[in-house]
């Protein structure tokens, strides 16, 4: 089971005015599995997003970027729906994949009475297999007929692939006496090292937010959440995080990053994003430990993340944590090969939770292996490295590698 992660409670997922969600079983990969999601947006809703930086990005990523750029132009038609399918990534499918993506957008547009370019497509699943356009087309009427404002729980379940637990959360924040709602869902379990966002994530609010500011806010939320996680160091071809602002709240439109309303909204949106990002790590394929990597006292944040990811990506570190084996010299080795050439290893300190493990370039005189063993048997663990070379910090989240990670990925297509 995932590390300290439980299913979201459907009744605690709050509707966002201006968003309706419909789910259907299109039998894309498995029979009778809900694998199709339509998110219909009210007229005037604004959408911003960040996408994978993988150069082999999927056809839906290319098309979604194109349609989103068109919608962001003043006076143009806005985005009216998001279309998500699981079971097939439509990546590595060439020109046919592009045509297939546009065909599915056009099919949904016909049902909703809008233009194809007002539909943003998203896919996740097996790479380099043709998108089953006919199955998706057949499933769309049922998804549209199923649309409800309170369908967030089923939507979170419909976008899962190897996930064990659905990932969803709602938050409300009072701004100038107005209660603003934020609800988000995400999916992801393996092939997680986002470098932009997550596998797939959707966060909606009923606030009205100016388009340029919305893009800034989704980037900020992504950088503080999904860009701080890793399960296996693999950046997906299909990653996308979308932020939707419907404008249905009576709160006046937020136009400036400097005002109190924007800061309150940004904080709440980022909180939702962090919850979803951490849920992905806790549900990492085969994960038994949730590991926080905290790097302190660096020259800049980039340096801190560079060292943090060296630790978080190391298969030797991750397998040691799975075994609860305090073979902690592996962490020192990862710090050393992180690529910070002028790092003074004699100045840094390594902690495992509150236990000082290493200082002055070697084992701390106070360290006892039984203390390290005690911490490593926990399901939630913090690795803390104090570099003592500046004021910058960074926090990343990762998990261990277990036997099940290999089993899951060895049989992914079966």
Summary, kept brief:
The protein has helices at 59-71, 94-112, 133-145, 152-158, 211-223, 260-282, 301-313, 315-322, 329-336, 369-376, 403-410; strands at residues 19-24, 36-41, 46-51, 81-88, 119-126, 167-175, 178-187, 200-205, 240-245, 290-298, 349-352, 355-359, 362-363, 380-386, 392-399. The chain is of the alpha+beta class.
Structure, explained:
It contains 11 helices and 15 strands. It is globular and about 70 Å long. Strand 6 and strand 7 form a beta hairpin. It is of the alpha+beta class. The protein has a 6-stranded mixed beta sheet. The mean pLDDT is 92. Helix 2 (94-112) packs parallel to helix 3 (133-145) and helix 7 (301-313) packs across helix 9 (329-336).
